[in-house]
UniProtKB/TrEMBL annotation:
<keyword id="KW-0560">Oxidoreductase</keyword>
<dbReference type="GO" id="GO:0004846">
    <property type="term" value="F:urate oxidase activity"/>
</dbReference>
<protein>
    <recommendedName>
        <fullName>Uricase</fullName>
        <ecNumber>1.7.3.3</ecNumber>
    </recommendedName>
</protein>
<comment type="pathway">
    <text>Purine metabolism; urate degradation; (S)-allantoin from urate: step 1/3.</text>
</comment>
<comment type="similarity">
    <text>Belongs to the uricase family.</text>
</comment>
<dbReference type="Pfam" id="PF01014">
    <property type="entry name" value="Uricase"/>
</dbReference>
<dbReference type="InterPro" id="IPR002042">
    <property type="entry name" value="Uricase"/>
</dbReference>
<keyword id="KW-0659">Purine metabolism</keyword>
<comment type="function">
    <text>Catalyzes the oxidation of uric acid to 5-hydroxyisourate, which is further processed to form (S)-allantoin.</text>
</comment>
Amino acid sequence: MPAILGQNQYGKAETRVVRITRDGAVHHIKDLNVSVALSGDMEEVHYSGSNANVLPTDTTKNTVFAFAKEHGIESAERFGIHLARHFVTSQEPIRRARIRIEEYAWERIGTSGATEGTGTGHSFVRRGQETRLAQTTYDGERWEVISGLKDLTVLNSTDSEFWGYVKDKYTTLPETHDRVLATDVAARWRFGWTDDEQETPDWEESYEQTRRHLLQAFAETYSLSLQQTLHRMGARVIDHRGEIDEIRLSLPNKHHFLVDLEPFGLKNDNEVYFAADRPYGLIEATVLRDGCEARIPVH
Ligand SMILES: O=c1[nH]c(=O)c2[nH]c(=O)[nH]c2[nH]1
Protein backbone atom coordinates (compact mmCIF):
# COMPACT_ATOMS: atom_id res chain seq x y z
CA MET A 1 0.00 0.00 0.00
CA PRO A 2 1.46 3.37 -0.94
CA ALA A 3 1.48 6.03 1.76
CA ILE A 4 -1.71 8.09 1.60
CA LEU A 5 -1.70 11.74 0.62
CA GLY A 6 -3.16 14.05 3.26
CA GLN A 7 -4.21 17.69 3.01
CA ASN A 8 -2.47 19.47 0.16
CA GLN A 9 -2.54 22.86 -1.47
CA TYR A 10 -0.46 24.79 -3.97
CA GLY A 11 -0.21 28.16 -5.67
CA LYS A 12 2.10 31.13 -6.09
CA ALA A 13 3.14 32.71 -2.80
CA GLU A 14 4.04 36.37 -2.33
CA THR A 15 3.20 37.99 -5.65
CA ARG A 16 4.11 41.60 -5.04
CA VAL A 17 1.70 43.70 -7.02
CA VAL A 18 1.60 47.48 -7.02
CA ARG A 19 -1.40 49.17 -8.64
CA ILE A 20 -1.22 52.88 -9.43
CA THR A 21 -4.43 54.71 -10.29
CA ARG A 22 -3.91 58.06 -11.95
CA ASP A 23 -6.56 60.66 -11.23
CA GLY A 24 -4.96 63.49 -13.19
CA ALA A 25 -1.96 64.66 -11.21
CA VAL A 26 -3.20 62.89 -8.07
CA HIS A 27 -2.12 59.27 -7.96
CA HIS A 28 -3.41 56.51 -5.69
CA ILE A 29 -1.39 53.47 -4.73
CA LYS A 30 -2.25 49.95 -3.58
CA ASP A 31 0.67 47.73 -2.63
CA LEU A 32 -0.07 44.08 -1.90
CA ASN A 33 1.70 40.81 -1.26
CA VAL A 34 -0.68 38.12 -2.53
CA SER A 35 -0.39 34.40 -1.78
CA VAL A 36 -2.67 31.95 -3.57
CA ALA A 37 -3.29 28.42 -2.20
CA LEU A 38 -5.51 26.11 -4.27
CA SER A 39 -6.80 22.67 -3.41
CA GLY A 40 -9.17 20.13 -4.93
CA ASP A 41 -8.73 17.04 -7.09
CA MET A 42 -4.97 16.96 -6.91
CA GLU A 43 -4.33 13.33 -5.98
CA GLU A 44 -3.08 12.38 -9.46
CA VAL A 45 -0.33 14.95 -9.69
CA HIS A 46 1.02 13.74 -6.35
CA TYR A 47 0.64 9.99 -7.06
CA SER A 48 1.43 9.69 -10.77
CA GLY A 49 2.71 13.10 -11.77
CA SER A 50 -0.16 13.77 -14.18
CA ASN A 51 -0.62 17.53 -14.45
CA ALA A 52 -4.06 17.27 -16.07
CA ASN A 53 -5.76 19.05 -13.15
CA VAL A 54 -2.96 21.51 -12.40
CA LEU A 55 -3.43 25.16 -13.19
CA PRO A 56 0.21 26.36 -13.07
CA THR A 57 1.26 28.54 -10.14
CA ASP A 58 2.68 30.85 -12.80
CA THR A 59 -0.88 31.33 -14.08
CA THR A 60 -2.14 32.21 -10.60
CA LYS A 61 0.54 34.93 -10.48
CA ASN A 62 -0.48 36.25 -13.90
CA THR A 63 -4.11 36.29 -12.76
CA VAL A 64 -3.20 38.50 -9.82
CA PHE A 65 -1.57 41.02 -12.17
CA ALA A 66 -4.36 40.85 -14.76
CA PHE A 67 -7.08 41.30 -12.10
CA ALA A 68 -5.20 44.28 -10.68
CA LYS A 69 -5.55 45.89 -14.12
CA GLU A 70 -9.06 44.74 -14.97
CA HIS A 71 -10.82 45.14 -11.64
CA GLY A 72 -8.47 47.52 -9.86
CA ILE A 73 -7.72 47.04 -6.15
CA GLU A 74 -10.40 48.71 -4.11
CA SER A 75 -9.67 46.75 -0.95
CA ALA A 76 -7.59 43.68 -0.21
CA GLU A 77 -10.73 41.77 0.84
CA ARG A 78 -12.61 42.55 -2.35
CA PHE A 79 -9.58 41.69 -4.47
CA GLY A 80 -9.16 38.39 -2.59
CA ILE A 81 -12.86 37.54 -3.03
CA HIS A 82 -12.59 38.15 -6.80
CA LEU A 83 -9.55 35.93 -7.11
CA ALA A 84 -10.87 33.10 -4.94
CA ARG A 85 -14.19 33.06 -6.81
CA HIS A 86 -12.38 33.04 -10.15
CA PHE A 87 -10.20 30.01 -9.36
CA VAL A 88 -13.03 27.93 -7.89
CA THR A 89 -15.61 28.74 -10.55
CA SER A 90 -13.36 28.62 -13.62
CA GLN A 91 -11.49 25.34 -12.96
CA GLU A 92 -13.53 22.24 -12.23
CA PRO A 93 -10.81 20.38 -10.24
CA ILE A 94 -10.21 23.37 -7.95
CA ARG A 95 -12.61 23.16 -4.98
CA ARG A 96 -11.08 25.64 -2.61
CA ALA A 97 -9.00 28.76 -3.03
CA ARG A 98 -7.43 30.60 -0.14
CA ILE A 99 -6.03 34.04 -0.93
CA ARG A 100 -3.85 35.60 1.74
CA ILE A 101 -2.97 39.24 1.32
CA GLU A 102 -0.63 41.54 3.18
CA GLU A 103 -1.14 45.20 2.41
CA TYR A 104 1.57 47.82 2.82
CA ALA A 105 0.12 51.23 3.65
CA TRP A 106 1.44 54.43 2.12
CA GLU A 107 0.88 58.04 3.15
CA ARG A 108 1.23 61.06 0.94
CA ILE A 109 4.35 63.10 1.50
CA GLY A 110 3.11 66.56 2.32
CA THR A 111 -0.18 65.85 4.06
CA SER A 112 0.85 64.70 7.51
CA GLY A 113 3.10 65.46 10.43
CA ALA A 114 6.55 66.74 9.65
CA THR A 115 5.93 67.26 5.91
CA GLU A 116 2.73 69.30 6.05
CA GLY A 117 2.07 71.42 2.98
CA THR A 118 4.52 69.96 0.48
CA GLY A 119 2.36 67.57 -1.57
CA THR A 120 3.10 66.60 -5.18
CA GLY A 121 0.19 64.17 -5.71
CA HIS A 122 2.58 61.35 -6.64
CA SER A 123 4.96 61.10 -3.68
CA PHE A 124 4.46 58.60 -0.87
CA VAL A 125 6.12 57.46 2.33
CA ARG A 126 5.47 54.01 3.72
CA ARG A 127 3.49 54.13 6.93
CA GLY A 128 5.30 53.00 10.07
CA GLN A 129 8.23 54.74 11.67
CA GLU A 130 11.75 54.63 10.37
CA THR A 131 14.53 53.75 12.83
CA ARG A 132 16.46 56.70 14.15
CA LEU A 133 20.22 56.30 14.69
CA ALA A 134 22.71 58.20 16.88
CA GLN A 135 26.45 57.66 17.37
CA THR A 136 28.51 59.81 19.75
CA THR A 137 32.29 59.51 20.13
CA TYR A 138 34.51 61.39 22.61
CA ASP A 139 38.29 61.15 23.02
CA GLY A 140 38.51 63.44 26.06
CA GLU A 141 38.89 66.49 23.84
CA ARG A 142 36.69 66.38 20.83
CA TRP A 143 33.25 65.08 20.04
CA GLU A 144 31.94 63.47 16.93
CA VAL A 145 28.18 63.14 16.66
CA ILE A 146 26.63 61.24 13.78
CA SER A 147 22.85 60.96 13.57
CA GLY A 148 20.82 59.17 10.98
CA LEU A 149 17.91 57.03 10.01
CA LYS A 150 17.19 53.82 8.16
CA ASP A 151 14.15 52.14 6.62
CA LEU A 152 12.37 55.34 5.59
CA THR A 153 10.58 53.93 2.54
CA VAL A 154 9.46 56.37 -0.15
CA LEU A 155 8.01 56.16 -3.64
CA ASN A 156 7.34 58.53 -6.53
CA SER A 157 4.84 57.14 -9.03
CA THR A 158 6.01 59.55 -11.74
CA ASP A 159 8.62 62.27 -12.44
CA SER A 160 11.38 59.70 -12.80
CA GLU A 161 13.25 58.81 -16.01
CA PHE A 162 16.31 56.68 -16.78
CA TRP A 163 17.91 56.82 -20.22
CA GLY A 164 21.06 57.85 -22.06
CA TYR A 165 23.21 55.34 -20.16
CA VAL A 166 26.15 53.29 -21.45
CA LYS A 167 25.12 50.25 -23.47
CA ASP A 168 27.40 47.28 -24.03
CA LYS A 169 26.64 43.81 -25.39
CA TYR A 170 25.12 42.75 -22.04
CA THR A 171 22.77 45.72 -21.72
CA THR A 172 19.11 44.82 -22.11
CA LEU A 173 17.44 47.47 -19.89
CA PRO A 174 14.96 49.53 -21.93
CA GLU A 175 15.21 53.29 -21.60
CA THR A 176 12.30 54.86 -19.75
CA HIS A 177 10.82 58.33 -19.56
CA ASP A 178 8.29 57.53 -16.84
CA ARG A 179 9.03 54.99 -14.15
CA VAL A 180 8.29 54.37 -10.49
CA LEU A 181 11.17 55.43 -8.24
CA ALA A 182 11.23 53.84 -4.79
CA THR A 183 13.86 53.46 -2.12
CA ASP A 184 14.46 52.73 1.57
CA VAL A 185 16.38 55.78 2.69
CA ALA A 186 19.38 55.09 4.93
CA ALA A 187 21.29 58.21 5.89
CA ARG A 188 23.93 59.24 8.40
CA TRP A 189 24.87 62.87 8.97
CA ARG A 190 27.74 64.37 10.93
CA PHE A 191 27.40 67.54 12.99
CA GLY A 192 29.93 70.36 12.94
CA TRP A 193 29.73 70.44 16.76
CA THR A 194 32.98 69.01 18.19
CA ASP A 195 33.66 71.01 21.30
CA ASP A 196 32.05 71.35 24.77
CA GLU A 197 32.72 75.09 24.55
CA GLN A 198 30.30 75.40 21.60
CA GLU A 199 26.54 75.46 22.08
CA THR A 200 25.04 72.08 21.22
CA PRO A 201 22.52 71.81 18.40
CA ASP A 202 18.87 71.06 19.28
CA TRP A 203 19.11 67.38 18.41
CA GLU A 204 15.35 66.74 18.27
CA GLU A 205 14.58 69.70 16.07
CA SER A 206 17.57 68.93 13.88
CA TYR A 207 16.38 65.34 13.35
CA GLU A 208 12.81 66.33 12.49
CA GLN A 209 13.93 69.02 10.06
CA THR A 210 16.56 66.83 8.39
CA ARG A 211 14.02 64.07 7.88
CA ARG A 212 11.60 66.62 6.43
CA HIS A 213 14.21 67.97 4.01
CA LEU A 214 15.11 64.46 2.85
CA LEU A 215 11.44 63.69 2.16
CA GLN A 216 10.78 67.00 0.48
CA ALA A 217 13.82 66.74 -1.78
CA PHE A 218 12.81 63.21 -2.75
CA ALA A 219 9.25 64.32 -3.53
CA GLU A 220 10.13 67.47 -5.44
CA THR A 221 13.06 66.28 -7.55
CA TYR A 222 12.24 65.48 -11.17
CA SER A 223 14.66 62.57 -11.35
CA LEU A 224 16.87 61.48 -14.24
CA SER A 225 18.61 58.93 -11.99
CA LEU A 226 18.55 57.85 -8.37
CA GLN A 227 22.11 59.23 -8.18
CA GLN A 228 20.74 62.70 -9.01
CA THR A 229 17.93 62.34 -6.46
CA LEU A 230 20.49 61.27 -3.85
CA HIS A 231 22.60 64.36 -4.49
CA ARG A 232 19.55 66.64 -4.26
CA MET A 233 18.52 65.07 -0.95
CA GLY A 234 22.00 65.48 0.55
CA ALA A 235 22.48 68.97 -0.86
CA ARG A 236 19.15 70.12 0.54
CA VAL A 237 20.18 69.03 4.03
CA ILE A 238 23.59 70.72 3.73
CA ASP A 239 21.98 73.92 2.37
CA HIS A 240 19.27 74.15 5.05
CA ARG A 241 20.89 72.72 8.16
CA GLY A 242 23.96 74.73 9.10
CA GLU A 243 24.74 72.39 12.02
CA ILE A 244 25.41 69.48 9.61
CA ASP A 245 28.71 69.28 7.67
CA GLU A 246 28.39 65.93 5.95
CA ILE A 247 25.70 63.42 5.03
CA ARG A 248 26.09 59.96 3.59
CA LEU A 249 23.15 58.33 1.84
CA SER A 250 22.64 54.71 0.89
CA LEU A 251 19.66 54.22 -1.42
CA PRO A 252 18.55 50.84 -2.75
CA ASN A 253 16.70 51.18 -6.05
CA LYS A 254 13.54 49.20 -5.26
CA HIS A 255 12.70 48.20 -8.81
CA HIS A 256 9.08 48.24 -9.97
CA PHE A 257 8.79 46.44 -13.31
CA LEU A 258 5.79 47.06 -15.54
CA VAL A 259 3.96 43.76 -16.00
CA ASP A 260 3.41 42.68 -19.62
CA LEU A 261 -0.38 42.25 -19.84
CA GLU A 262 -0.47 41.95 -23.66
CA PRO A 263 -0.75 38.13 -23.54
CA PHE A 264 -4.10 38.64 -21.75
CA GLY A 265 -5.28 41.25 -24.26
CA LEU A 266 -4.85 44.05 -21.70
CA LYS A 267 -2.95 47.30 -22.01
CA ASN A 268 -0.73 48.28 -19.11
CA ASP A 269 -0.79 52.04 -19.10
CA ASN A 270 1.73 52.43 -16.24
CA GLU A 271 -0.76 50.91 -13.79
CA VAL A 272 0.36 47.44 -12.74
CA TYR A 273 3.87 46.77 -11.45
CA PHE A 274 5.81 43.83 -10.11
CA ALA A 275 7.72 45.05 -7.04
CA ALA A 276 10.94 43.03 -7.09
CA ASP A 277 12.78 42.66 -3.78
CA ARG A 278 16.16 41.53 -5.17
CA PRO A 279 18.53 42.09 -6.78
CA TYR A 280 18.41 45.84 -6.36
CA GLY A 281 20.62 48.70 -7.48
CA LEU A 282 22.44 50.28 -4.53
CA ILE A 283 23.36 53.93 -4.92
CA GLU A 284 25.58 55.45 -2.23
CA ALA A 285 27.37 58.76 -1.84
CA THR A 286 28.55 61.37 0.63
CA VAL A 287 27.47 64.99 0.22
CA LEU A 288 29.70 67.54 2.00
CA ARG A 289 29.74 71.16 2.97
CA ASP A 290 32.42 72.85 0.87
CA GLY A 291 35.70 72.83 2.80
CA CYS A 292 34.64 70.05 5.21
CA GLU A 293 36.28 66.67 5.53
CA ALA A 294 34.52 63.37 4.77
CA ARG A 295 34.64 61.41 8.02
CA ILE A 296 31.55 59.19 7.94
CA PRO A 297 33.00 55.76 7.23
CA VAL A 298 32.01 53.92 4.05
CA HIS A 299 30.67 50.44 4.69
O1 LIG B 1 18.57 55.55 -11.22
C1 LIG B 1 19.20 54.60 -11.68
N1 LIG B 1 20.56 54.61 -11.65
C2 LIG B 1 21.30 53.58 -12.15
O2 LIG B 1 22.59 53.62 -12.12
C3 LIG B 1 20.62 52.49 -12.72
N2 LIG B 1 21.03 51.33 -13.29
C4 LIG B 1 19.91 50.64 -13.64
O3 LIG B 1 19.93 49.51 -14.19
N3 LIG B 1 18.79 51.35 -13.32
C5 LIG B 1 19.21 52.50 -12.73
N4 LIG B 1 18.53 53.56 -12.22
